[in-house]
Automatic annotation (TrEMBL):
It holds the Pfam family Nudc_N. CDD domains: p23_NUDCD3_like. This is NudC domain-containing protein 3. The keyword Electron transport does not apply. InterPro entries: CS_dom, HSP20-like_chaperone, NudC_fam, NudC_N_dom, p23_NUDCD3. Residues 93-184 form the CS domain. GO terms for molecular function: unfolded protein binding. PROSITE patterns: CS (PS51203). Keywords: Phosphoprotein. GO terms for cellular component: cytoplasm. GO terms for biological process: protein folding.
């Protein structure tokens, strides 16, 4: 069972810290199996007593890999469910230095700041079409809280920010009506298939409202066996 592995974490973590990377850690692990076990020995004859049939050892490795791959996927899905339950990360995520959410037209970001940051001049927010930088002024210098290239273009002229107690609020105006899977390039992406893609009626213009009203009317007329809008005489 996966949970039984916890008792070995300390020893394995020590090896990983010593070698410094996953590839070398795997080399240590499989090297141990090669030198100290019959993991790589093949059972080729009926009288062979040690080893595995051809392909069996590889199958064991793949089966174990897929077990934890499924667990990782389940964890990822659960994280997005948790994000969806929090208005601050709805359709978005919680990251190290900020929280973000989104709707059809805008991205909202909340960047926590120290309690003593209470004036606008203590904050630097630079919003550009393809980048964002957020910093606070402390001790004669700047402490950068968020910086990087955006995954999608924004309209910097209509994007806004404000300082509230304990946080900086940033509203980014999307240039295109599509869902973002991340704010900054290189950060972990969310699965946009797990978010709520329903469009808020507040973001629909009058022409689109008219189309939606007509479609709704036609749908109910069809259910009742009555003529739809295009079948009715004006």
């Amino acid at each position: 069972e996966p949970e039984l592995s916890d008792r070995y974490d300390h020893a394995l973590l020590g090896i990983l810290q010593h070698v410094g990377n996953i590839q070398d850690f795997l080399n240590v692990y499989f090297g141990f199996l090669y030198r100290k076990t019959d993991f790589y020995r093949l059972l080729l004859n009926p009288q062979d007593r040690f080893g595995f049939p051809p392909g069996a050892a590889q199958g064991m490795v793949m089966q174990t890999f897929k077990t934890y791959e499924r667990l990782a996927l389940k964890d990822h899905e659960q994280r997005q469910e948790d994000f969806q339950d929090d208005p601050d990360s709805y359709n978005g995520a919680v990251r190290k230095n900020y929280i973000w959410s989104q709707d059809y037209a805008d991205v909202e970001i909340k960047v926590p700041v120290p309690k003593h940051i209470i004036k606008g001049r203590q904050v630097t927010v630079d919003l550009r079409n393809m980048s964002v930088r957020v910093a606070v002024r402390e001790g004669g210098g700047e402490h950068v809280l968020m910086e990087g290239n955006l995954t999608h273009k924004i309209n910097a002229d209509t994007s806004l920010w404000s300082l509230e107690p304990g946080k900086i609020l940033i509203s980014l105006s999307k240039c295109g009506e599509y869902w973002w899977n991340a704010i900054l390039e290189g950060e972990e992406k969310i699965d946009i298939d797990k978010i709520n893609k329903e469009r808020s009626m507040a973001s629909v213009d009058e022409e689109e409202h008219a189309v939606l009203d007509r479609l709704t009317f036609d749908y109910h007329q069809k259910l009742q066996g009555k003529p739809q809008s295009h079948e009715m005489k004006v």
